[in-house]
Specification:
Helix content is 29%, strand content 26%. It is an alpha/beta fold. It folds into two domains: 200 residues, Medium-chain alcohol dehydrogenases, catalytic domain (Quinone Oxidoreductase, Chain A, domain 1, Alpha-Beta Complex), CATH 3.90.180; 126 residues, Rossmann fold. Helix 4 links the parallel strand 11 and strand 12. Helix 1 packs across helix 10 and helix 3 packs across helix 4. The radius of gyration is 20 Å and the shape is globular.
Length: 342
């Protein structure tokens, strides 16, 4: 089968012919119908976050159709439409037992520690394959498994509740889901911060208050709009030192800044003025949890989460097209989410 693989960091991805995997007793083989190109994948190619082993098929946002099932699988059937939880874990360790499986010592992430979805087929434990309702297209189901799920988890980590105000720094794939999900958690006002007018217009269409950081200081503008108070929760989805600092500076008393964006750069802030004097919090948010996915999928099925305008383009299973998409992601282009359709 054909697969697009990372051979070495700092080099373009390459397409290779590799063996089609065979299911173990508790596995399913999924024919890939859609695989999202995430900003994290561009980070892997750039060497910002290590990928092991190499060469490896990238792609952790995956949806498709079950084509083969293992002998012991009873939860899925051939022909099922599925979207894939990208953390493959042991299920038995202390972290898995307490429902924090993203910290499983033997856990593997699709497209980072085991072969992912930039391919014609992908092998996955049956318990990682969640049924995808007919109402949700494969492309939307794929990106929901990362951008939407990660935003959902970050909002939960930030303890967003009824009456809160939320600032979302970066309205790309994750941010576009975050601005829609925040009101479902009870947020009264959600501020979308970006430098791209097209993204801000889309976010405004979802009910967010746009703040163009290319034209104004977003901290000053949000504080002006909140009567000097600031926000209860800020999601930092970019990873730049500037936006990390802004997400902290914009907090109200008792505010929570949730860090999601990846970066290899250090960030600085004034702990006394920004954190201690406000009893504010900085919270790390890593990935998401399997138990969160059924609720998220149902929200998408009902239309509470609308991803129809988030998928900006589709490309074939072609290395040049994927590399060009990653180049645009690294330059923070207007692409929100591009999906591979093998």
């Amino acid at each position: 089968m054909k697969a697009i693989r990372l051979i070495k960091p700092h080099q373009p991805l390459e397409i290779q012919e590799i063996p089609k995997p065979e299911p173990g007793p508790r596995d399913v083989l999924v024919r890939v119908k859609a695989a999202g190109i995430c900003h994290s994948d561009a980070h892997y190619r750039a060497g910002v976050s290590p990928v092991n082993p190499l060469p490896l098929t990238l792609g952790h946002e995956v949806a498709g159709v079950v084509e083969e099932i293992g002998a012991e699988v009873t939860s899925r059937e051939i022909g099922d439409r599925v979207c894939l939880h990208y953390m493959v874990t042991c299920g038995d360790c202390a972290y898995c037992a307490q429902g924090s499986e993203q910290f499983c010592a033997s856990g593997q992430m699709l497209g980072k520690n085991r072969n992912g979805g930039y391919a014609e087929y992908i092998l996955i434990p049956a318990r990682n394959a969640f049924l995808l309702p007919e109402e949700i297209p494969f492309a939307q189901g794929a990106i929901m498994m990362c951008s939407s799920a990660t935003s959902f988890h970050a909002l939960r980590k930030g303890r967003v509740s009824a009456g809160d105000t939320v600032a979302v720094f970066g309205v790309g794939g994750l941010g576009m889901s975050a601005v829609q999900l925040a009101p479902a958690f009870g947020a009264l006002d959600t501020f979308a911060v970006d430098i791209n007018p097209a993204k801000l217009k889309t976010a405004e269409g979802f009910g967010a208050i746009p703040v163009n950081a290319a034209e104004t200081d977003p901290v000053e503008e949000i504080k002006r709009l909140t009567g000097g108070r600031g926000v209860d929760v800020a999601l930092e989805l970019i990873g730049l030192p500037l936006t990390v600092r802004q997400s902290i500076e914009v907090l109200a008393v008792f505010g929570r800044a949730v860090m999601v964006g990846l970066s290899d750069e250090n960030s600085q802030f004034n702990a006394y003025e920004e954190m201690i004097c406000r009893e504010a919090e900085i919270i790390g948010s890593a990935d998401h949890l399997a138990r969160e996915l059924p609720t998220l999928i149902e929200m998408a099925r009902r239309g509470t989460l609308d991803l129809s305008g988030v998928v900006s383009d589709t490309v074939p299973l072609d290395a040049d097209a994927v590399n060009e998409t990653m180049d645009r992601l690294e330059s923070f282009s207007s692409d929100t989410r591009v999906v591979i359709a093998p």
